[in-house]
């Protein structure tokens, strides 16, 4: 094979040219790297290891490094790096833990040069020093980083990250001795290659694994990191503490991040899963990508800018077995398709509306927003080059404020905390939840819970306790009452009957259980002088206590036994006259009364028998043996109504309380949507316990598995800093208890707070009190611990 020619100048002697093009590979690619003169690219994967020449309009295969009848696992590459100083030198990270270097100048077919097998697990990353020819750095899944001198047969330094795995290592472009490493536990460490015993600095960069990092090629202190939390963060490392200066929110886990040459604020990213596109971001405007490359059909695994001084060509490899060269001028610009109007609700119900200034500048009623005039863009550019800057758009913002008390969500939090969803009989759960809703001034919800108890409770066992009056009556059919305590006459004034002194009457008619029940109570008519009241209409359990469900009195059992049924159920009416008047004996009684005027005595009145049939009547509205499934369609419509109104709390609570009674009536997708919406609201209000209870009680299989994922926690020993096993709190290496409080030095029994940075921890209360007065670790290790 011919040796590749050196490029002594950056772009002066040979300007890079080309177009957007691609070629099909023999297998999916895991990583790519480009040579210094930008004329060739190496593609590595589990089953591919080839070098392609970058010509004007196509890729041309130059060399297949995967040779031999039966290639070993040393050819199965997780990462590849082409040395930027020595044109014939490559390094690969093998999946079997080997670090292999390749010399393209060898005359034989097999270009393998040196083999280092010191790592015990897969090597995730290899990195050459940018200026030192023989220095190679590797990071492995075993948690160690090793520095190799290619003139020797073994590593010269070993760095222990005190974590489960190292995801990425990168030498600094400006500091000769410094390199950065990202870890599975979310930390980023800075090391000095002269001090392998301890890192220089460590900070928590992401909530989850940090998959990649990249030093800015021009700015000495900027470090970009990407993680599983779907964020790209830019850190300023020149300060005493790492300072986050920019943050970009993406839509998927970030697998690779590369700064764009010659553009200080631009960087390219690709995702580890779900999203196949490559995005170029302007970190000053993190909410929308600056440019997008959408050619790949599967996950992009490697990205690299073709030349370190050319921002117009990007190379990428993918699991779809393609290798692409992207021209930046052919990229999609998402900002061109973005909606120029925006609408958003604030936390307290305020509504913000943004639109082009030209659309609403004529509105004379607009008042200046107290937050300041933001009608003009934040960034101004000297050169209006559309290809390198965002479009210049002026927008106006209108804010519509609402009364703070009109949309308060206190009822949601209190309801979530006070509702009972399990642990008691169905009737008691409904009663309790109805009472909670009533106390929070939500009468419709309270009535709904009461109606659910009536519908789905067993009519033969509707008792609320051994001391409840209903429990003394035996088994009675459930029925609704129509109770009219006082009647207004059609003439306007109310006429009352006053019994003679000492006369007491209680008329009760008992029929067989299960039949109609007619009860007459005349005690309410024995009122004091001048008492008046409106007629009350009470239907069922919605407005009455349980005592009013049954119009029965057992205060005087002896009188009840003396009462005998009349021969006729209803007495014959008196003869109807043209000018009907009250019966003579009633007129006489009323006229003789000193409290009734003559006009009132002439008012038309009902006979005692007629008033008996109207004052109090109770009868069943349905058969006591009506199945509960009869009400399921109504309940389904009710749940849909609450969900459409936005009250998913009521819909989910009823789903859990009713359980199997209603579960089959609602499809699983709808249930899952309601559950996810309610759980999201609970987590926004930080009601973690209630959220976990809802997940456990869920009737939807897709929800019950939520609290069974992402629960693995990797803990290091506080003494030797090595990862702990899953068998307990005794370290396998140093045989010391790792759950010792750093403040009181006693073994923690209960809640244990653990710092991911330094591995020290202790009692929750002790650590909280300590951090109120000091920011350093109580164990004296010097780490700046944070409790959030």
Could you describe the 3D structure shown?
The protein is α+β, with helices and mostly antiparallel strands. It has 16 helices and 37 strands. It has a four-stranded antiparallel beta sheet, with no helix packed on it. It has a four-stranded antiparallel beta sheet with strand order 2-3-4-5, with no helix packed on it. Strands 6-7-8-9 form a four-stranded antiparallel beta sheet, with no helix packed on it. Residues 495-510 have a biased composition (Basic and acidic residues). This is GATOR2 complex protein WDR24. One of its GO terms (molecular function) is ubiquitin protein ligase activity.
Mean pLDDT score? 76
What is the helix fraction of residues, given as a range?
Answer: 10-25%
- Individual helix count: 16
Give the total of beta strands. Answer: 37
Q: Runs with pLDDT <50, length 5+?
A: 1-13, 372-384, 460-561, 580-617
Terminal CA distance reads 59 Å
**Structural shape:** globular
Main beta sheet strand tally, sense and closure: 4 strands, antiparallel
| Percent range for β-strand residues | 15-25%
Strand order of the largest sheet: 1-28-27-26
